[in-house]
Amino acid sequence: MRDIREHPSVEADVIVVGGGFAGITAARELKRSGRSVALLEARDRLGGRALSAPIGDGKIVELGAEFHGKAQRIIAGTARELGIDSYRVHDEGDRLIDWDGELVRWRGMMPRIGPATLADFGQAALRLERMARRVPLDAPWRAPGADRWDSETMASWARRNLRTRGGRRLMQVMIEAGLAATPADVSLLHVLYYSQGAGGFRAMTSVTGGTLERRFVGGSQNIAERLAESIRAETYHGAIVRKVRHTGTHVRVIGEGFEAVGRRVVLAIPVPLAGRIDYDPPLPAHRDQLTQRLTFGSAIKYLALYDEPFWRKEGLTGMVISPDGPVRAVMDSCPPDGTPGVLAVFVTGPAAREVSRLAPGERRETVLRALTRFFGPRAAWPYEVIEQNWMAEPYTRGCYHSYAPPGLYTSYGPGLREPIGRIHWAGAETVTAEYGAMGGAIDSGRRVALEVIGRDSGEAPARTDAAPENRFDDVFRRMDEAEKHD
Ligand SMILES: Cc1cc2nc3c(=O)[nH]c(=O)nc-3n(C[C@H](O)[C@H](O)[C@H](O)COP(=O)(O)OP(=O)(O)OC[C@H]3O[C@@H](n4cnc5c(N)ncnc54)[C@H](O)[C@@H]3O)c2cc1C
Question: Domain check: are 307 and 357 in the same one?
Answer without folding.
Answer: yes
